[in-house]
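Progress narrative, Year 2. Work on ATP synthase protein I from Microvenator marinus advanced from sequence curation to structure prediction during this period.
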Amino acid sequence: MARLEITFVKNLVLKTLVVGAVFSLGLGVFVGWWMALSTAFGGLVAAANLKVVEFVTRRMMEAAENGHAQSTFWSIILVLKMLVLFGTIFYLIVRLELDAIGVVVGFSAFLPAIVWQVLVSKDESSTQD
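Result:
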């Protein structure tokens, strides 16, 4: 069961990149290249965020399997991840002056990617039973 969840997140990262690229391409065509670039950066940040969550989750599960169920260290890592995430988004919008709406749209690419991944994994699990 735990391996299935790790696979779910790994596939979610890929789907987030795909959805982010589609959003970026669409906004590039209809709004402009700066919005496309902003959206692409937002999608990359979302995918990187999911990748870190996948890494931490995998490490927590491995520790639990080995009998080390204390998760304080990994909880601190997740809090630090959030601080880095906020700092990265601040840097993209304030320092690089990317379009805030584009960054938010790109970062939000993980939401339809979750729906996509759930639908795909639902189909896979229903054919196995």
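The chain has five helices and no strands. The longest helix spans residues 33-65.
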